[in-house]
Amino acid sequence: MDFTFTEEQQAAVEAAKAVFGPVAPDSVPSPALTPGAVADDFDRALWSKLADADLLSLLLDPEHGGAGLDAIALCLVLRESAKVLARVPLLEHTATTVAVQAYGSDELKTRILPGAANGELVLTAASAGRTGHDPAELAVSAHHDAGTWILDGTQTAVPWAHNADHIAVPAHTPQGGTVIAVVPRPHQGLTLAEQISTSGERLAELHLDAVRLDAHHIIETDEAWDRLHQLLTTGTCALALGLGESVLRMTGDYTGKREQFGHPVATFQAVAVQAADRYIDLRAMEATLWQAAWRIGTREGGPLPASGDIAVAKIWASDGVRRVVQTAQHLHGGFGADTDYPLHRYHAWAKQLELSLGPAAAHEETLGDLLAAHPLG
Length: 377
Description:
By secondary structure, this protein is an alpha+beta fold. The protein has helices at 7-20, 44-52, 71-83, 90-103, 106-118, 223-257, 269-298, 306-332, 343-355, 360-373, and strands spanning 123-125, 140-145, 148-159, 166-172, 178-184, 190-196, 202-213, 218-219, 259-260, 263-264. Strands 1-4-5-8 form a four-stranded mixed beta sheet, covered by helices on one side. Strands 2-3-7-6 form a four-stranded antiparallel beta sheet, with no helix packed on it. A hairpin with a 5-residue loop joins strand 6 and strand 7 (202-213). Helix 6 packs antiparallel against helix 9 (343-355). The chain is globular.
């Protein structure tokens, strides 16, 4: 078996390193010192650089101006972005464009994909549901009326919604199906209430009050939301991996220089063992991530559906990234809480990623249900 990345995937990583390399993790006010959002908008200058490097269209087909790559390539780029806490909606934007390309009407593709590919349009997705604990598609209802669709409901914690041009909103129909409504912003009946994430970024509580949309704004394929949700979850695992790798590197640098009793603390057995445990966490996070990304990218079969591999990846990502930042804070001592040092920012982002798209316990429940429904021979 060949576990190396393709030349195209490696090229995407090199392009991502060139774009993200100069980014400063502390380029905005500290979330620990800011009562509101750390910024009103995402990093538009970085967004333009991503567009110029063709990193916003990685997964789009060449006919839509993309490179035609797969989920693994996206996760490789997302890992690099998280190492520097890049403040861009790369995951949500890319995942939504993939859903539009795969399942949207020709009119919707024509309206959205060219602008999404070059960064002129920004897309995001609502995936937290009404409370953050219930399925997102149950938070909003959608039904036909006089040739249009009407949507009602509330989605919470929608990332980048205040600055997006279109928001992908899952909704349930009276027939029990699931659709994705690609809602333009602004739009009559759509209101956004500000929420603040653990990492200090602006989220939105999205309210839909009899929002009317033409049929071409609705993706009616039943599997579309599952596929979009799977890519969002797997991408979140990639972000957690990149963040964790950066934090462990920071910890190694610090403990290698910090001396106690005349020796670097990294040479103490208790410190080395804790760091080694976190390295093992990261390797497990990486192995399960690539398994999940490969499954959704190739749609290869297996003893469990792809959702099983995604659940395993998110369990490791949620638990692993939490353990990595907690150990980093412990080994840094009081210096880790210094707001002039970036570790506290990584800790806040890690907590956000740990809970995004469901904590480990939620995915353990999902995995248990899958194992019950698909007994392994």
